[in-house]
Write a structure and sequence with these properties.
The structure holds 2 protein chains of 2 kinds. Helices cover about 75% and strands about 0% of the residues of chain A. Chain A has 14 helices and no strands. The two termini of chain A are about 30 Å apart. Chain B is mainly α. Chain B folds into 2 domains: about 55 residues, no CATH class; about 170 residues, MetI-like fold, CATH 1.10.3720.10. In chain B, helix 5 crosses helix 8, helix 6 packs across helix 8 and helix 8 packs across helix 10. Chain B is flat, with a radius of gyration of 28 Å. The chains are: A mainly alpha, B mainly alpha. At the A-B interface, helix 1, helix 4, helix 5, helix 6 and helix 7 of A face helix 2, helix 5, helix 6, helix 7 and helix 8 of B.
Chain lengths: ~280, ~280
């Protein structure tokens, strides 16, 4: 829309934008603020401004609370789940979008069905399966279980992306003697790089943020992921808010940076998947 | 003669099963789709039907269980917790989705105006969604806290009152809804904004020439062009909200007195009590 705003419109619009900014930023500001305070300052001199700001909470988190172990576990689980699920979902999406065979539409429906099935319905039978496979309370078990949501979502998103790329280039390569598989590896995959970034970021953050399954499938302290470690801090008898908020900031910063770097790809990828899928 | 024969044997070697081109393409298709299909059969389809089967038996962990028909369902429907859960889930989803639709559409329309630094504002809107859900809801629990929480700090200074947002029956659900809305609305804004930017300017010009006012332009040009995106977003977002565990678990754990109990949290409690039942005999 190429018209100009009148003065009164300008005042109204920018006032609304500033109001929105306050609503969005205030909780984030408060999270960082409290992470820099000791209990004495939180309860005795409550204030919306920093008082005696200190990094004491972060030091305790990483030295006494063993938060580094939780971060390492989360990195291993989210990283492995992402690699496995992007790998298998690329192959599946290529197969479903470009190749012709029977039962294809049934497989497409299966993937949608899998994505729509609530986790709350699945976790009781899943815990039986994981126990039978002897994967209970292990990071491997968690990686495997995370495929329930990451595999269908990444396949669905990759299908949307592949559909947006014309098949002509691959057909050309096949006329020149390449096999189907080579055309996929050398033509389609490089062209889908933005989609791959989007799907990887989406899968990684999805696994990094997952709480319910991690809570069910890990019990001992050494295999707890970041969200599980934080929820144990918050369901205890005493809320050590400074420490909890330091943990929250440390958990949020890496994925928020990742998200921002990949923002453009993620939004485009989601839109492509959502509109065409 | 031998030289002429070579290409034929090579072709036969590369075509192991003597399949023609389309058969090979479909074989490749099955091979490539197999890993995802096998994963989903083990992790989703089998557990799904298994869950339905268990729900018709009186099985407990360690026991075999007999078929008891609809017994569990009758038991469940008589459970006050369960009735509360149905009601809460419906209220939560309907209210949260309505708020997201109104504010998502409103903010997207605002960001589609010729404002300065649109990329900056768009990035700002994304912040709550880029934040991990568990971090967002833990932070909101702190905001609501009666000791050390920001809202009560402000309330005491302004009106000298203190509200127990998460432990008062009347306030718990609205508080959980507000936090859930805060974390979820950016997805709506960004998706609707992307759709708005795809609407061709000529349509608006044509409508303006025909003398359509702002509301008519919205009704007849904007809305039809973004409706399909709104429907997809509504579907996805409703699934996410219905299945959301973190918001309730981290802020209220379903309380006070089931006032915020939803299906995922109820199911989690169910599993926890099963684990306790399994541990008891061994002690």
């Amino acid at each position: 829309m190429l018209y100009k705003l009148s003065a009164s419109q300008k005042v109204l619009y920018y006032a609304l934008l500033v109001l929105m900014a306050v609503v969005i930023l205030f909780p984030i500001y408060y999270m960082i603020l409290i992470s820099l305070k000791l209990p004495v300052d939180i309860y005795r001199t409550p204030s919306l401004l920093p008082v005696n700001a200190t990094l004491q909470n972060y030091v305790e988190l990483f030295t006494k609370q063993g938060y580094l172990v939780n971060i390492r576990n989360s990195l291993v689980v989210a990283g492995s789940a992402t690699i496995i699920s992007v790998l298998i979902s690329c192959m599946a999406a290529f197969s479903l979008v470009r190749l012709k065979y029977r039962y294809k539409s049934w497989i497409g429906r299966l993937i949608l069905f899998a994505y729509l099935t609530p986790t709350a319905l699945l976790f009781i039978p899943l815990s039986v399966i994981i126990a039978r496979l002897n994967l209970g309370n292990t990071l491997q078990g968690l990686i495997f279980v995370y495929l329930t949501f990451s595999a269908p979502l990444s396949t669905w998103l990759m299908m949307g992306y592949f559909r947006g790329i014309p098949a002509d280039l691959e057909e050309q390569a096949m006329v020149d003697g390449a096999t189907r598989w080579q055309a996929f590896l050398r033509i389609l995959l490089p062209l889908s790089a933005p989609g791959l970034v989007a799907v990887s970021v989406f899968t990684f953050t999805g696994a990094w943020n997952e709480l319910l399954l991690a809570l069910i499938f890990t019990t001992s302290k050494d295999v707890r992921t970041v969200p599980v470690a934080l929820q144990y801090l918050i369901t205890g008898d005493v809320f050590r808010w400074g420490l909890i908020m330091a943990g929250s900031v440390a958990a949020a910063v890496p994925v928020m940076i990742l998200y921002y770097l990949a923002q453009r790809f993620v939004v485009e990828g989601l839109a492509a998947g959502a509109v065409k899928g | 003669m031998a030289e002429q024969a070579t290409p034929v044997t090579q072709r036969q070697k590369s075509n192991l099963l003597n399949l023609d081109l389309s058969q090979r393409a479909s074989l490749l298709g099955y091979v490539l789709v197999a890993p995802v299909v096998i994963c989903l059969l083990i992790l989703v389809v089998y557990p799904f039907f298994y869950a339905i089967w268990i729900s018709f038996t009186n099985r407990t962990v360690g026991g075999v269980g007999d078929f008891i028909g609809l017994g569990n369902y009758l038991y469940l429907f008589k459970l006050p917790s369960f009735q509360a859960t149905i009601q809460n889930t419906i209220v939560m989803v309907v209210v949260v989705q309505s708020l997201k639709l109104i504010f998502g559409l409103g903010i997207a329309l605002l960001l589609n105006q010729p404002i300065k630094a649109r990329q900056f504002w768009r990035g700002l809107v994304l912040l709550p969604w880029a934040m991990p859900a568990f971090v967002a809801f833990i932070t909101w629990k702190l905001l609501y806290a009666s000791e050390g929480g920001a809202f009560n700090m402000i309330l005491i200074q302004v009106a000298d009152i203190r509200l127990d947002f998460l432990s008062t029956k009347a306030l718990a659900m609205p508080s959980v809804i507000l936090a859930t809305f805060w974390r979820g609305f950016p997805f709506w804004v960004i998706s609707i904004l992307a759709a708005l930017q795809n609407v061709s300017p000529e349509l608006y010009e044509a409508a303006a020439i025909d003398g359509a006012n702002a509301w008519q332009r919205f009704q007849h040009v904007t809305l039809p062009s973004i409706l399909h995106v709104i429907l997809v977003v509504l579907l996805l977002s409703t699934i996410w909200t219905t299945n959301s565990f973190e918001n309730v678990w981290l802020m209220t754990q379903g309380g006070p007195f089931d006032a915020t109990m939803t299906f995922p949290v109820l199911a989690y409690y169910g599993l926890q009590s099963l684990q306790i039942a399994r541990l008891l005999p061994s002690r």
